[in-house]
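Recap from last week: sequence in, structure out.
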Amino acid sequence: MIILAGMAILGVIVLGLLALVMWFNRDTLSKYDLPLGQRFSPADATAAAASAAAVTALNKRLRGASGPLEKMPWQQRVLAMRETMNNFFAGAVISSVVTPVDAAGVPAEWVVAPGADSSRRFLYIHGGAFMAGSPQCYRVLTDKLSEITNSAVLVIDYRLMPENSRLDCIEDCRNSYDWMLENGPEGPDAMAPKAVFVAGDSAGGNLTLALLAWIRDTQRAQPNAALALSPVTDARFTSPSIRGNLDSDVILKPLAKRLAWVPGFLIGLAGRYMAGHKASDPVVSPLLGDLSALPPILVLASDCEILRDDGRRYVNKAVEAGTDASLMLWDNVPHVWPVFYPDLPEAGEALEQVDLFFKRHA
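Predicted structure tokens:
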């Protein structure tokens, strides 16, 4: 009888703990799934065929590069992912001048297109799941950003996980932003920059949006505008597209597939483990923070990627809070597709929209 009573008590405790986990991880943000944002699709059948062919060719190349990663142990996978990202864009030709620099202890590089105004500054924060990526991987994109915004782009090589913590990544972004306000490609600058922009993709989009809130809260000089490409906004992984688009996201599926078997009520714990920090803290989940009084923000996402609803929810909540934010969705393109310019027609289309956005807020 004592054993049975003990088992009954233990069962009650377990059920109580499971209920508590489910309560803390409940989805309270579904109201921000609407509206859907501005949609972009091929203009006609010819454009659709050209787009489909380009996406198919790119997806084949991506699967070839990422496929072997799925069978590797986690630590080996991280190292291989870094090498894969660096090699994928090796040999890209750009017109900008690239200058390595130390940005307040953070390795970085200035990317300056011919004729760009160095008094206009642009901080770019790369993606790579907080564990991979480098300024070198993004030179095609940062070259174009320097050109279309007529600015000097500072691309930082922030500390990566798991060797470092998520808060180290955040600290490097903050220090780099302060440094950029006082330094240009030619060195220290006593004059304030004429214009300031911030952008990032995926993990870098998360760091970008978290940085904006910190800039506001610490009353620093705000950027004129910010861009987030396919950003992670909720480290709890509660957005519907996390599971709904798992099979269609050719880039993130190798990383996200491990979440597919995790019960919904435990996803929050998985998010905390992966973030190395409390997942509900706005410093790692910008969606969960105060989104008022932020600079104009443009979010771009693919309709078939797992992070689609992270971007959608962030924009809809920001608009509700009074921030000038907008969402643009493209059909049938991979995660952070603008980095594949000029191979994808949609990459050029997205950059045209980015150009118009920054011109409105220059």
